[in-house]
Amino acid sequence: MLRSLKKMFKSNYLFTLGVIICLAWIIAAILAPVIAPYDPVVQDLTARLQAPSAQHWFGTDNFGRDIFSRVIYGGRYSLLAGCLTVVIAGAIGTFYGAVAGYVGGQVDNVMMRLSEMILSFPSLILAMIINAVMGSNLFNTMFALVIVAWPTYARLMRSVVLSVKENEYVTASEALGASKIRILMKEVIPNSITSVLIMATTDIGNQILMFSTLSFLGLGSAPPTPEWGMMVSDGVDYFNKFWVAGFPGLAIFTMAVGANFIGDGLRDLLDPKLRKQF
């Protein structure tokens, strides 16, 4: 696997680019207090709406706050929301779908009808409703995203488990008297998880976009939190000042594209039909 991964770094330039982009944002978010030249929330009305310059690389917003500093700090919130949402939703959906697929019968029918009921709502609208009811803050926004996201993982996991549970090693474990929970945890889930991991990697970019969209609509973190979507929203009234919304929007774009490049590369690496290329 390590040899294949190393070979893919050399041959799949988009995967390599995705890794570089995502690592750059992660490192920048971790080292934000060191990299950012200004406090991201301190206002300076004498310097409001200044164009990019040597003093303010990305210019300043309508309150005179340094946009470069706010973009760097904003990565902490957007990356945290995107990654944590995927981890929690993926874990819930994986176990839920595995149980439904392995047990089957009426249990499967009832469990999947519940997930399909959630999927029947437009994801953004449902997330907006949940967030509006619970109140707008970082935790509630991530909770809404998890509620919207987990059924997709459940459906994927169930479809894979339906195939995996017919394999001989699962039948052998059942014949030896292993409990259903042991078979599920030791045999079924480990041999079904690859597709979920690929989807999760790609979904990080989608969840960052969804989180930024909710923040853009005023349903994310509360001001003056330096969050990318909220910064784009602040720049709507200043279209002639491209830097106010442009640089936060570029941050969202690059992170989403980088995550998708990594997801595509992992799919090529882990998919048995494509693995022979590496």
Describe what this molecule looks like in 3D:
Belongs to the binding-protein-dependent transport system permease family. With 278 residues, the protein is mostly helical. The protein has a single domain, classed as MetI-like (MetI-like fold), CATH 1.10.3720.10. It has 13 helices and no strands. The longest helix is centred in the first third of the chain and has 37 residues, at 67-103.
Give a quick precis of the structure.
It holds the Pfam family OppC_N. The protein has a single domain (12-35, 59-270), classed as MetI-like (MetI-like fold, Orthogonal Bundle), CATH 1.10.3720. Helices cover 73% and strands 0% of the residues.
Characteristic key phrases:
278 residues; mainly alpha; MetI-like fold; 13 helices
CATH topology: MetI-like fold
Question: In whole angstroms, how far apart are the ends?
Answer: 9 Å
What overall form do the CA principal axes indicate? elongated
The sequence of SSEs as H and E is HHHHHHHHHHHHH
Main β-sheet description = none
> What structural category do the secondary elements indicate?
mainly alpha
Which second-level CATH architecture applies? Answer: Orthogonal Bundle
What Rg do the Cα atoms give?
A: 22 Å
Query: pLDDT average, as an integer?
Result: 86
Pfam family, one: BPD_transp_1
Membrane topology: Multi-pass membrane protein
GO cellular component, one term: plasma membrane
Organism: Frisingicoccus caecimuris
